[in-house]
């Protein structure tokens, strides 16, 4: 119902806004408390309540009171909630205008605060509070009790990141997970259905099994992995998305080499749910709590210090000297204060863990002027979506109160595609950001590629060195840095701070001292277990690190005895092996795994699980099917050929051969000792064991 058709007996708009806000805050308060809260008489409140109910803004329900007298509870209808938002915008716009006029009268110049015009630009400045989705403390306590009867969904780590930024306003103007209409519009046009700029699909992906238990209009409880309720969601939409289309439009290609595309096809649920979210409590973080700020907490901090311009530095890597020089120059160019805003949610597989990175940031924070620089952590699950991600980061930083964002060369790029080429052009992200920055209300500061000029002992932008043919230009790539760390080589002080190098060396000791995993894969009867046993003996003979063999048959007996041989169960078995291997690797041991592991996606998931902590060496035991059948000591192939064993790899179920294994071992006419020795030589060449 448009505002112009509201009945004439409603209160004037400011009073109506106060009434709707109070009913939303305290729906079960007595009429006397409500009247006192908004400063009117009880009789006038009753008149207003009747008018608001007749207009469809408020729904009244009866409830018994503690003294057995009849009480009432008031809930805003969807129309009432929309009207409250519209009135809030109108109220704020008028107050900003009044402030602007007063500022001009006192100082002779405008304040620079722009009145609100569109919901997509909820706050046109970095000083005013932003809308959150949390209910009041009292309402949250009530909802926690009521949620015990709701169907519960246990959120994945990525969904927890998304939900936190939905609830605290980091994803403003979203009010929940996208509807199907909004999702389709975002995928195709980078806009919500109402035209608001938003480049990234934010949906609750669930399994088909869970989706079958949920009906449209149903409320579900959203819980973390410990079962703690974080919020509720009203399911308004349920659909099966076209994931190939999403990959093409959002990430530029339906290519599994892209980590987000791989996640989309191999980890995300098959069904998407959409609907508004009600926030009950924020996720619990036990790490770096003093560094975690919501958008409103940052805005309040900027407001307290009088920071009118703030440039954010997006990073998922440790800070080195080039980054420091870059951020200094960006803040100077924008004449702004600096917010170092690293991502501590999910980043690219293989990145330095956020605990190490934050320790590195804290180690160098005193290199920055304290009065103009601060640091806060962002619990964002990155998608590595390049140009779209840059726009997304801009909107998120705008919500956190920033006026500028440093956008780098190949911003949020995932690396190489399946053809060995970069997914995105080096300046695609900057170009797309520049196109939309006025609409977003946040300006871009171009990333300058900084290099060290030895003769002048300083960092300078590479494209601004006029005498580059006459000076010595030094730079260390990320690959070279990782090599030096792995081999324990010197990292010069001109490149990084000693404090940062110290922290990195704690986490990344020389490779010959790190834990690692050797993952054999091949057909049944290919010789995996035999070679794995020989390798285990050779490594134990060398000593220095504990060695554990996770053979497929042994793991099935002790860890997965309840599992069958369906694709789902085989995947689960391999992931269990991967989890145990990751724990061994994390704690400095050597894990040797020897399952069949027939599926590429599952092997990749295990690789990503382990490479957080150490090296993963995939060994394809490439024995032919014919040779495996000839060796068939257990008679399994014969039974499979006769149809007595269903879903047998190589016969009735496929084996997806590795295409990028670190080592391929041929076992036909080669003895076991030689095969194991090939693995030893490969491990030596990778620096994982010291040469004998």
In words, what does this structure look like?
There is one protein chain. Helix content is 40%, strand content 15%. It is α/β, with parallel strands linked by helices and 692 residues long. The protein has four domains: 1-123, Winged helix-like DNA-binding domain superfamily/Winged helix DNA-binding domain (Arc Repressor Mutant, subunit A, Orthogonal Bundle); 137-279, Roll (Sulfate adenylyltransferase); 307-452, HUPs (Rossmann fold, 3-Layer(aba) Sandwich); 511-686, P-loop containing nucleotide triphosphate hydrolases (Rossmann fold). Strands 3, 4, 5, 6, 7, 8 and 9 form a seven-stranded mixed sheet that branches. A five-stranded parallel sheet has the order 12-11-10-13-14, sandwiched between helices. A five-stranded parallel sheet has the order 19-20-18-21-22, with helices on both faces. The model is unreliable at 1-5 and 114-124 (pLDDT under 50).
The low-pLDDT segments are 1-5, 114-124
Q: Which of globular, elongated, flat, extended, rod-shaped describes the shape? A: globular
Percent in strands: 15-25%
The mean pLDDT is 87
Say what oligomer this is. single chain
Structural class: alpha/beta
Cα-atom radius of gyration:
30 Å
Helix content: 40-55%
CATH superfamily of the largest domain: P-loop containing nucleotide triphosphate hydrolases
Question: Number of DSSP helices?
Answer: 24
- Tell me how many strands there are: 22
Distance between the termini: 81 Å
- Report the major sheet: 7 strands, mixed
The domain tally reads 4
- Under CATH at level 1, the class of the largest domain stands as Alpha Beta
The name of the CATH topology of the largest domain is: Rossmann fold
